[in-house]
Write a structure and sequence with these properties.
- Keywords: Transit peptide.
- One of its GO terms (biological process) is iron-sulfur cluster assembly.
- This protein has 288 residues and is α+β, with helices and mostly antiparallel strands.
- The chain has two domains: 139 residues, Alpha-Beta Plaits; 106 residues, Elongation Factor Tu (Ef-tu), domain 3 (Beta Barrel).
- 14% of the residues lie in helices and 33% in strands.
- The protein has a six-stranded antiparallel barrel. The protein has a five-stranded antiparallel beta sheet with strand order 1-7-10-9-8.
């Protein structure tokens, strides 16, 4: 029976812009370790972490949460990247590895703007056919759930979820922004989403060189304008082109993430086209 007294913000809703890919088998972790930028060997069963998949040139294809509900099982929760597309791309690299990669249609990714009951930090809560994780911060509690039970759609809650991601510096990459940016340009060190100490993976040499030689000159900036900003829109200081928007809210005014020089000028001089931009400090708390 539905509890009608429940706060609407606490109800689970379908994250319709998120997909799910599962990796199952004796070589699931070894396969992921060779493909993804974070250290999967250090991820214990029952925990999760952020990670990213890169091109050989070190450009970000996807940023996602990696869940390890069991020793031989991984789940990738993918914002914005179609799960079927990701699964098909990963399958090209399986070769003789004992791993089954699927985009299970029977499982749904859901969210709620409330703290989970048992999951905390990087610890998963696995029970009753569902998996919950704590994807919140001190600024906004949130839970993410993988479940075979369906949740209703909620357009307003989905938009708010995306805005929270952006304010915390989680880049939401549409197709036009994939394979364009290095992890450092997207400030993914804030999420602990890549490793410079593990073994080889696609793009590892470029990531390590940028890190150890101190060549990261650009990173994410949180901006806001009164008009709707779109991915790919330029960010300028007077007549000087500084960078571009990589992720934006679905409404205005709303937050947007742009890749800019780390020493970019004050926001009161920045604009995108005819839209003046305001600068905000990125929120912390999503790192795991």
């Amino acid at each position: 029976m539905t509890d009608n007294r429940q706060n609407p913000g606490e109800r689970a809703f379908a994250l319709t812009d998120h997909g799910l890919v599962t990796l199952q088998g004796p070589d699931a972790v070894a396969f992921a370790q060779a493909q993804f930028a974070n250290d999967l060997n250090a991820l214990e069963a029952g925990r999760w972490q952020w990670s990213t998949w890169l091109t050989p040139k070190g450009r970000v294809i996807a940023v996602f949460a990696v869940l390890r509900p069991a020793a031989d099982q991984l789940m990738l929760v993918l914002p914005d990247v179609p799960a079927v597309e990701m699964a098909a791309a990963l399958k090209r690299f399986v070769f003789r590895k004992q791993v089954v990669i699927e985009a299970p249609a029977a499982l749904e990714v859901q969210g709620a703007l409330t703290a989970p009951l048992r999951a905390q930090g990087a610890l998963l809560d696995v029970q009753d056919g569902a998996i919950e994780l704590d994807i919140g911060s001190s600024h906004q509690p949130r839970l993410l759930r993988v479940s075979s039970q369906q949740a209703p759609e909620d357009v307003a809650a989905l938009a708010r979820w995306r805005d929270i991601d952006l304010r915390h510096g989680l880049p939401r990459l549409d197709a036009s922004q994939r394979e364009q940016w290095t992890p450092q340009q997207l400030s993914l060190e804030r999420l602990h989403a890549f490793s410079v100490k593990k073994g080889c993976y696609p793009g590892q040499e470029i990531v390590a060189r940028t890190h150890f030689l101190g060549k990261a000159k650009r990173g994410l900036a949180l901006l806001e304008g009164d008009a709707l900003l779109t991915p790919g829109a330029p960010v300028e200081d007077g007549e000087r082109h500084l960078g571009q928007v990589v992720s934006a809210s679905s409404h205005a005014p709303g937050p947007a993430l742009a890749v800019l020089p780390l020493d970019h000028p004050p926001a009161d001089t920045l604009r995108s086209g005819s839209t003046m931009l305001r600068s905000h400090v990125l929120l912390d708390g999503l790192a795991r």
